[in-house]
Amino acid sequence: GAVVSQHPSWVICKSGTSVKIECRSLDFQATTMFWYRQFPKQSLMLMATSNEGSKATYEQGVEKDKFLINHASLTLSTLTVTSAHPEDSSFYICSATGTSGRLSYNEQFFGPGTRLTVL
Amino acid sequence: AQKVTQAQTEISVVEKEDVTLDCVYETRDTTYYLFWYKQPPSGELVFLIRRNSFDEQNEISGRYSWNFQKSTSSFNFTITASQVVDSAVYFCALSEFNAGKSTFGDGTTLTVKP
After folding, report:
1. Residue A95's closest CA among A80, A112, A71, A74?
2. CB burial class (10 A; 0-12, 13-18, 19+) of residue B44?
3. Do A43 and B106 lie within an 8 Å CB cutoff?
4. Which chain B residues have a beta carbon less than 8 Å from that of A110?
5. Is the pLDDT of residue B106 over 70?
6. Series of mean pLDDT values for 10-residue runs along chain A (119 residues)
7. Contact by Cβ (8 Å): A111, A4
8. Is the CB of residue B101 less than 8 Å from the CB of residue B93?
């Protein structure tokens, strides 16, 4: 099956610093990647959708300048939380869909998530 | 706009009991996918099932079964003979048919006591 990895799995940083989270599709070409945020005991909320080689489309209420998304290749998307603050502490999950050879996926495959703690 | 409602916030059962998790959805699309995911304390989403809107057949996989009723826009999930390892948060999700973005319900926290 299709596998998506995330790195790091957890990160602790100081307030004001920037943190980069990577999302990789390991065995397929991810033409579209999604970034979700999940606060404790809450549901997953979609932050943005990115297509390879294009600018990401952000959901309403998500700050584009704070959450920088880059999807420069078919196997890698990055989310950079700029000038992180304690309120950005959350569980960030990426998902991806795309193709593998002649197979075109109709579903998203989720990464294991990255837990960000901002002190 | 799409919406997924999981009315049960928390459910607690004793081991070996059967339990049903409800999911009701709203969409204007005629074609779509429905999913159930399990999220254990580790946080990683575990895929359980995908059902497309054309297929209303119910499905059984071991102790898990799903009842999809398009007429009532419901996609309920039943665990038979629950076990302690079933304790987790379960999410129902609705996705655009062309692998577009997914809308998640608020989740149901299931606790199975020994």
Report:
1. A112
2. middle
3. yes
4. 37, 44-45, 47
5. yes
6. 91 97 93 94 93 89 95 92 96 90 79 96
7. yes
8. no
